[in-house]
Amino acid sequence: GALTREKMVNHAARRNILIVDRSKLSRRLGERWPVPVEVLRFGHAATARALSHLGEPVLRVRDGAPFVTDAGGLIYDLRCGLIEDPAALERAIELTPGVVASGLFVARASLVLVADESGVTPLHPPR
To answer: For 3-22, how does the pLDDT look when each residue is reduced to its tens digit (9 = 90+)?
Structure first.
């Protein structure tokens, strides 16, 4: 529920170390997981409709009610399928009126650490 805060800290930092759980990894973005998108509560249904040209927005629900973030927004999980151009998708999402932040952090990691039960290992991008 801290997506907007994470994004703000990420943009303010000189160096960004992202820590991910190994279970979240996939070969390609969009292959297994939707993109979380935080939106304002006001007009959230209209925002979801505006996002629908990018994929299928599904309101995140916990205990029978919309999940509310630390910043007071709602999360839509945007199912896009395989993401060919993450930077273009991030721009398109974040330019949509009512969107606060997307869960894409394109070109923002100085280092990615992958954690699992055996420890933590650095992820080296393909060359």
So the answer is: 788 888 877 888 888 888 99
Catalytic residue among 6, 84, 90, 94: 6
Active site residue 6: yes
Residue 54 lies in a domain: yes
Q: Identify the CATH number of the domain in which residue 84 sits.
A: 3.30.70.260
Query: Which tens digits make up the pLDDT trace of 59-112?
Result: 999 999 999 999 999 999 999 999 999 999 999 999 999 999 998 888 777 888
Domain membership flag for residue 124: no
**Structural domain boundaries, residue 22:** 3-118
> Which of these, 43, 29, 21, lies nearest to 90 by C-alpha position?
29
pTM for the structure as a whole = 0.84
Backbone angle region of 22, left / alpha / beta, with phi > 0 → left and psi within -120 to 50 → alpha: alpha
- Evaluate whether residue 127 is within a structural domain: no
**Whose CA is closest to 99, among 32, 33, 54?**
54
Size of the chain in residues: 127
Q: Nearest CA to 59 among 71, 41, 72?
A: 41
